[in-house]
Amino acid sequence: MKFTFDEIVKATEAQVLECKNPSGTFNLSTDSRKIETYDIYLPLKGEKFDGHNFIQNALEKGARGYFTSDKKLVFSDASFVLYVKDTLEAYLKLALYYKKIVNPITIAITGSSGKTTTKEMTASVVQQKFKMHKSILNHNNEIGLCQTMLSMPKDTEVLIVEMGMRGLGEIELLSKYSEPDIAIIANTGTAHIGRLGSVENIAKAKCEITKHLHKEGLLLAHDTELIRKTNEYKGQTIYLGLNSKDLETIKLYTNSSEFVYKKQKYKLNTEGEHNIQNALFAINAGLKLGISSEKIAKGLEEYKPIEKRWEIHKINGFNIIDDSYNSNPESLKAAVSTFLSTQKPPKALVLGDMKELGKNEILYHEEIGKFLEKYTDFKLITVGSLAKAIVNGLSSEKRNDAISFDTNKDTAKYILENLPAGTTILFKASHSMNFEEIIKELDKK
Q: pLDDT class for 194, splitting at 50, 70, 90?
């Protein structure tokens, strides 16, 4: 999106420090390495970098002007220099300014787990009737929100944004600068408990999404006592869960599932009750937008899991299910339950460390072992120092049959040398465990 000089100053409330030639229209760039002629450079600050150090580089590459939060940084070769106290806030203000020009219905989605899947399902439903624009991948922080909104085509009718967080106050900030019409809280669990300290704080952080939700909007929230107790939104609210009186006839298959909701039959080309839960949010968002239940069903059936989220491969005689994009106790239990309930033997679990669980991280891993006690006919392989605690939660009989590794390479070697051809293997771990390395090793052979 290109802006005039006057639009930029108005939207960001910037103070003009230098103005030689403001004519024309300009794109905004936050990356000095990708500057094009006539761009405006907006330097952002991170934990390990400060974009202000690259202002001169941006000008050398053709930037017409730039923002700064330091009034001393005025370079003579710039056509204009704009001062703001906080460059990230300026970025957010400009993104909201553009959103108001396009004026799409805005759907905001958060949750401890399931938010990206819910976003993709909702997008698949919405595009059956509307011109839709969405957050790509998991671009769910302040910068990702700005990139999503500023890349929105002018004919966008529905905007779908994903919201993540690192601490209290961050989702409220994202809500403030996106002004949603529909908000979805997919679920709250123990993901990020290491940062927030308690599930109560996690629920509080997720409910911040309603702080700037339109008064006549809609909140769709996971039906839990904690969310009900924490939610302060006074507008229309629908709590959704697998215990819904409108949900019936659930059928789970290998790689698919079917269910009836409000008398309409739906099919998902992915498995697990947790994905039916995610689909309920997409259905109700679609109904709020006036999409027919038949078109909603078509959109859900067209949904395809994204990379590393129940991604299915056949590699070197093994049936691989890669769900290693992220992991926390709730998503791991859901994935394991689905896998062990639907897959035929021989089958194996390759489970890695779950990160950011705080001081009780060992306990959370041991609880996974206890959860596995009710299942039979599988091989358990753990990878990483934390995941070893999963084995500690097993009974002695199952513990003796489990095996743990410290490295991905050793794990791959064991699989190749010990698991029979035709084994179906679920890979589940936090993203930083880099489980793609194991799959690549299997593929090499």
A: low
Same topology between domain 3-87 and domain 311-444: no
> Terminus-to-terminus CA distance in the chain, angstroms?
48
420 preceded by cis ω (within 30°)? no
φ, ψ for residue 418 (rounded to 5)? -125, -25
Per-domain boundaries in the chain: 3-87, 103-302, 311-444
Q: How far is the C-alpha of 102 from the C-alpha of 131, rounded, in Å? A: 12
CA distances in angstroms from 356 to 216, 341, 370, 401, listed in the order given:
36, 28, 21, 28
DSSP reduced 3-state for 191: coil
Could you count the other beta carbons within 10 Å of the beta carbon of residue 195?
16
Q: Inter-axis angle of helices 87-102 and 142-150, to 10 degrees?
A: 40
This prediction's pTM: 0.79
| Fold topology of 103-302 | UDP-N-acetylmuramoyl-L-alanine:D-glutamate ligase (3.40.1190)
pLDDT, tens only, 106-122: 999 998 778 889 999 99
Tell which CATH architecture fits domain 3-87.
3-Layer(aba) Sandwich (3.40)
Q: Specify the pLDDT at position 428.
A: 96
Query: Tokens in use for 191?
Result: 């993901």
> Helical H runs in 66-163?
87-102, 115-126, 142-150
Whether the Cβ atoms of residue 25 and residue 31 lie closer than 8 Å to each other: no
Separation between Cα atoms, residue 99 and residue 154, nearest integer Å: 9
pLDDT digits (tens, 9 = 90+) for 110-163: 987 788 899 999 999 999 999 999 998 778 899 999 999 999 999 999 999 999
CA 299 to chain centre: 20
Q: For the domain bounded by 311-444, which CATH number is listed?
A: 3.90.190.20
pLDDT at 197: 64
| pLDDT reading at 318 higher than 60 | yes
Calpha distance 285→83 (Å, rounded)? 40
